[in-house]
Amino acid sequence: MKRMTRLGVALGGGGARGLAHLGVLIELLDAGIHPEFVAGTSMGAIVGAAYAVGQDLPKLLRVLEHLELSELFGVGEPFEAMLGRTAVESLRGRLRRRAWHDEHSPRLGRMAQFLKLITKGMWFEDLEIPFVAVAADYVTGEEVRVNEGPVYHGVAASAALPGLVNPVRWRKRYLVDGGLVNNLPVDVVEGMGARTVLAVDVRAPLGPLPATLVGATLRFLEIATREVERVRVERARERLGNRLLVIHPDVDEIGVLDFDRLEEAVAAGRECARSTLARL
User: What is the predicted pLDDT for the residue at 240?
Assistant: First the structure.
């Protein structure tokens, strides 16, 4: 692929696997390639925001290596167990006649504080690099492209995984993880003005049959969102042709909540991007 200007990156969701985006961006920057547009979903929004606000990514990586990310995000137990705990807490709230979505969420509070730090307290309107965080309206099911107001607020909404983090209020809407509606936002970054799009897909294969009913429910949702993503990417490829490049860092063995495997994810992102440079 001939190197072109107006490069946009679409950074997909995938929990801890999305830390590979940090490696991808560092490798691009080391090669003198500076994306001009960024759209991200969930963890892709977190990493994309750090780039868009002008963070020194290698320095940020060194900081993250000294943090207990699992503790920071409040995800110290298996995903299915956390969902079960959340369901019990929600039921207790109902018995107290409180709406679950309006209850205080310590996990959301910690995440918001962290995001405010890494986005330097900046607003979308202040960014020199256009950036969009993709979220979902939890009432209407619509895709919401957040590009106004505090960056950390939009990113928190994009990464608010239902069952783990309460919805984020934005413009009188309840927003949750954008992976429900657009996990790999190729069309978003294209619509921002990108002529060439590098999409970083960090989803892992589905794996064996789920062992629990909770797992089976999650599998149903995963299949549905994957099909939506496939159709969106195919349509984008019809428009962009060889100006769309989708890459897949080797993060299949990293779990959604395996934040202690930061170095592995970043290394996988760097290696994948390095093998792609000649095609940009």
Answer: 95
- Secondary structure of the chain as H, E, C letters: CCCCCCEEEEECCCHHHHHHHHHHHHHHHHCCCCCCEEEEECHHHHHHHHHHCCCCHHHHHHHHCCCCHHHHHCCCCCHHHHHHHHHHHHHHHHHCCCCHHHCCCHHHHHHHHHHHHHCCCCEHHHCCCCEEEEEEECCCCCEEEECCCEHHHHHHHHCCCCCCCCCEEECCEEEEEHHHCCCCCHHHHHHCCCCEEEEECCCCCCCCCCCCHHHHHHHHHHHHHHHHHHHHHHHHHHHHHHHEEEECCCCCCCCCCCHHHHHHHHHHHHHHHHCCHHHC
CB 136 within 8 A of CB 144: yes
Characterize 102-129 residue by residue with b for buried, 16 or more Cβ atoms within 10 angstroms of its Cβ, and e for exposed.
eeebebbeebbebbbebbeebebeebee
Q: For residue 139, give both structure tokens.
A: 């009432």
- Could you tell me which residue, 164 or 119, shows the higher pLDDT? 119
Give the Cα separation of 251 and 267 in Å (integer).
Answer: 10
Pairing of strands 7-11, 196-200: parallel
- In tens, the pLDDT along 100-138 reads 455 556 677 888 999 999 999 999 999 999 999 999 999
What is the tens place of the pLDDT at every residue in 30-46? 999 999 999 999 999 99
